[in-house]
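A.,

Following up on our hallway conversation. Structure tokens first:
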């Protein structure tokens, strides 16, 4: 195992990938290929039995009655909103610090996105800001994003919803297996949306998504909407969408679902090791003025570390330095949604959400995946220490 390089020592050029799909594939190859072969042999390529089996297993894993597979995490968000009959004339409060699909799904449903700033420590929606927005506008729903694998403050958001009648749509795209007070993401709101994009903790070999709910009627409606609005074949009750979960992807997900809890536990171990290494390196501060700021985990949350994200005002220079050292890193996300060119019509401007804007200038995700080795973590931390020293 490599020793951590200290100041003055010659830099190691060991490369560290941001993510390595091949390592996981080496472990699941035989099971995945057997599952794919079974689909091909059975010739049920659209909504085959593997889809129903995966949906039931995923629902059980999330602690809900229903899971409805669909074509992507983006479609899952739209299905959730459509099932709640949220559309023109409705407003949904969400975060400006997220992937584009969070807001675009609201627009696709025909509703109006209203943005509220985030909590500086967790990067998730600040319930106080949600309350402030809801007090000035008529709002139908709130869409908290469980960013980086940590659930939003669902105690505060559910309390607000109970007093105002807001529906809660969880954007749990990055949070399969995460918990809040022991309750799994996907069971914390009226309905939730997951993504199984290949980089996710539970990932497909292409695009795939899922919604979850405890509500029988919502589940039935989402099942209908994902198949062109059909309850009976060729009879279309509504104008739905073609967003079925591919049977081949369901087969892959069924295999990988059996490993996701162990993978999440491993991610927590890696995150804890990073914390220890950074503190030992002496470059951690309580604020970005003192050094890098490590990820914060709310004691009520079961973090699954989809990303391990540090903060530093020297983010861009650090990223360039790591790239030159052949170490992967990524920025999630460099431009808040309210400043995106395509969302100018929302009417927001620079300075409207200062916490989100500051985060967008400071966050940097470091390599984290279950197969990441300890010597690779040491290489990452040693490189960052050289940058600061």
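Then the amino acids I'd put at each of the 389 positions:
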């Amino acid at each position: 195992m490599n020793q951590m390089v200290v100041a003055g020592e010659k830099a190691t050029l060991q490369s560290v990938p941001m993510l390595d799909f091949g390592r996981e594939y080496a472990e699941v190859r035989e099971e995945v290929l057997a599952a794919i072969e079974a689909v091909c042999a059975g010739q049920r390529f659209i909504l085959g039995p593997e889809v129903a089996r995966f949906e039931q297993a995923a629902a059980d894993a999330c602690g809900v009655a229903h899971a409805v597979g669909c074509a992507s995490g983006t479609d899952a968000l739209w299905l959730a909103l459509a099932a709640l009959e949220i559309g023109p004339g409705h407003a949904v409060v969400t975060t400006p610090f997220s992937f584009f699909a969070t807001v675009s799904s609201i627009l696709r449903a025909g509703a109006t996105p209203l943005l509220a700033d985030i909590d500086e420590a967790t990067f998730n929606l600040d319930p106080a800001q949600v309350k402030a927005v809801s007090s000035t506008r008529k709002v139908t729903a709130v869409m908290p994003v469980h960013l980086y694998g940590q659930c939003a403050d669902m105690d505060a958001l559910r309390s607000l919803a109970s007093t105002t009648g807001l529906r809660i749509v969880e954007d749990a795209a990055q949070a399969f297996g995460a918990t809040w007070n022991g309750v799994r993401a996907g069971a914390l709101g009226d309905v939730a949306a997951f993504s199984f994009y290949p980089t996710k903790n539970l990932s497909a070999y292409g695009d795939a998504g899922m919604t979850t709910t405890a509500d029988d009627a919502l589940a039935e409606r989402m099942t209908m909407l994902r198949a062109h609005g059909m309850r009976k074949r060729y009879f279309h009750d509504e104008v739905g969408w073609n967003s079925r979960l591919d049977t081949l992807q369901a087969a892959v997900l069924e295999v990988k679902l059996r490993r996701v809890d162990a993978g999440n536990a491993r991610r927590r171990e890696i995150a804890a090791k990073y914390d220890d290494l950074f503190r030992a390196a002496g470059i951690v501060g309580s604020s970005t003025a003192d050094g890098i700021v490590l990820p914060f985990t709310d004691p009520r949350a079961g973090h699954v570390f989809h990303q391990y994200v540090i903060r530093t005002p020297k983010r861009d220079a650090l990223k360039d330095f790591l790239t030159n050292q052949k170490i992967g890193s990524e920025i999630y996300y460099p431009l808040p949604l309210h400043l995106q060119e395509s969302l100018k019509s929302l009417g927001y401007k620079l300075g409207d959400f200062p916490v989100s804007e500051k985060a967008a200038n400071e966050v940097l995700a470091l390599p984290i995946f279950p197969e990441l080795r300890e010597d690779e973590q040491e290489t990452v931390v040693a490189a960052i220490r050289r940058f600061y020293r």
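The longest strand covers residues 66-70. Curious whether your intuition agrees with the design.

B.
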